[in-house]
Amino acid sequence: MKKHFETEAIRNQTARTQFSEHSTPLYLTSSFVFENAEEMRASFSEEKERNLYSRFTNPNTTEFVDKIVSMEGAEAGYAFATGMSAIFSTFAALLSAGDHVVSCRSVFGSTHSMFTKFLPKWNIETSYFKVNEVDSIAGLIRANTKILYIETPTNPSVDILDLELIGNIAKKHNLIFIVDNCFATPYAQQPIKFGADLVIHSATKLIDGQGRVLGGVTVGNKELMREIYLFSRNTGPAMSPFNAWVLSKSLETLAIRVEKHAENALQVAAFLETQENVAMVKYPFLKSHPQFEVAKKQMTLGGNVVAFEIKGGIEAGRIFLDHIKMCSLSANLGDTRTIVTHPSSTTHSGLSEEDRLSVGITNGLVRVSVGLENAIDIIEDLEQALRFR
Ligand SMILES: *Cc1c(COP(=O)(O)O)cnc(C)c1O
Prior knowledge:
The chain contains 15 helices and 11 strands. By secondary structure, it is α/β, with parallel strands linked by helices. Helix 3 (about 60-70) packs parallel to helix 10 and helix 13 (about 315-325) crosses helix 15 (about 375-385). The structure holds pyridoxal-5'-phosphate (PLP).
């Protein structure tokens, strides 16, 4: 019988070997051996379920995938080298030339590049709706629309999309509903409950949680996962057993880490709301968040990312970053170390102001990925940096 979240994360484990090890060993092997020709035949024809080659499955990747499947309430899954390879392989496996995608415009930067630069090479078009214009989705759907795609909370502006509402639109129009659940983690939000067919994670973020390895995973409906698996085992985006071993260990502490991340993030958000130099703070579990009620409906915790608007626009954001002492300036998020970014002067400085605004990146927007340091020290660093203007 399925146990509680934390128990599954710890006790869902590869079978013990003859060495009676307590912790799952690392299976660094590219292939597996067979007793005889008949066993090899039966294995390759899938009459017998077992490991053949680590591009297909490996005990470490299977353990990692099994945990995510259990956490998300999914039926099957596959582990990828990165979050982007999970996203790209999922789309490539399910779409054909001439198909159409409807997606929220507020998606991860490389996902946006996939939609606008690469999928069009195969005659696959994407129509965007804005995060606050969910009513326009139905009007974007065409006869050839196959996938409805969202992220929630969104990066970097921490907006919330209503999973149940959008899930119902997908169901009504017979679309595959795919959710990038990276910011929430399976501990705080399970999109399948609200109608998602597939859930994708960049395991690089809170799932690793310690800024060490890259990874991605797609889980969900059995039939869809079968197509994704067959595509992937032939085209080769598999996660390495080493990364799977690291990530499966990370999952053992996901619940306790995410609890603490969210506790720290709420304290940071509440502090920022008191600051004179701060025009606006966005965190899903702050009452002032425009979609607070939706966040409460679909999330059990608000996650670890806080966005805020510093008064004084681009220049104020640059000055703030330059005076940060302890927190890191880095493009990653979901690390034990608190990370501060100012998208309009750094990662998104190449976009026009209009393009930035269309994804909620105002000139003074600062994103804080709140880590696991003591909240008092995080707040002290932010407070001293906010004093410079
Ligand atoms: C980082 C990220 C990705 C991409 O994951 P990688 O592991 O870096 O390839 C996709 N979606 C979201 C929301 C992310 O934050």
